[in-house]
Design a protein that fits this description.
single chain, 216 residues, alpha+beta, Nuclear Transport Factor 2, Chain: A, six-stranded mixed beta sheet
């Protein structure tokens, strides 16, 4: 029969393990949030190689808006290094605000999922070559992450663009200035787009997590 002292020690040890697990998970969440924010700053400044280096060698896929699905790390390289390799005039600009991030670490702390809203503004010449035009855009990221060598990397990236509109038009008038973006990329995707539902489609990007109260 266990003594009261040994029972107390076991209880304390169990509590310490529980607290340690919570600390590890919280640190993982912070590192993933940092990874996502770093990606945003590299994206803003067209640092393609730096973005590629944030992806795991075991990357599953990347899908951005209606540009199709690119498979594996090779697909990530095609998408960022080849599709965006053309020189850009100094007035071309993109700024992505990644907001309301929700990160959930899977049991075992080796994989995770995250959801982010992204509001972006840009200046480019999609309408008239060499003439800068201002644009607004908005969409939702549903990403997957993997821990390798104690560092978090992207495993899967999926960005569902809801609208991409000229500043002077607005999304009610022009929901998407590029409904056929694949035509503009020098490389072609491995698979066609799977989740492109621009405004006013009421499609809700599936949540990776269950309801915290009902569990549904």
């Amino acid at each position: 029969m266990k003594s009261a002292e040994s029972t107390k020690i076991e209880s304390l040890e169990a509590k310490m393990k529980e607290l340690e697990a919570k600390v590890i998970t919280q640190d993982d969440i912070e590192q993933i949030e940092k990874l996502q924010r770093i990606y945003g700053y590299y994206l803003d400044n067209n640092l393609a190689q730096e973005i590629v280096d944030l992806f795991s060698e075991s990357t599953e896929s990347i899908e951005i808006a209606n540009r199709g699905v690119y498979l594996g790390k090779a697909g990530v390289k095609k998408f960022f290094l080849l599709n965006q390799s053309a020189p850009r005039p100094p007035w071309v600009m993109g700024r992505h605000l990644q907001l309301q991030g929700i990160v959930n670490v899977d049991p075992g702390n080796m994989t995770a999922k995250g959801r982010w809203q992204c509001l972006f503004m840009s200046a480019s010449d999609f309408n008239t070559p060499h003439v800068p035009t201002a644009y607004w855009g908005y969409g939702v990221y549903e990403n997957e992450y993997i821990k390798e060598n104690n560092k978090w990397l992207f495993k899967k990236m999926n960005f569902n663009r809801i609208f991409f509109t000229p500043y002077q038009d607005g999304w009610a008038k022009t929901p998407d200035i590029r409904p056929n973006s694949i035509e503009f990329d020098p490389t072609k995707p491995d698979l066609p787009p799977t989740a492109y539902h621009p405004y006013p489609d009421a499609f809700v990007v599936p949540f990776h997590y269950k309801h915290p109260i009902t569990g549904k």
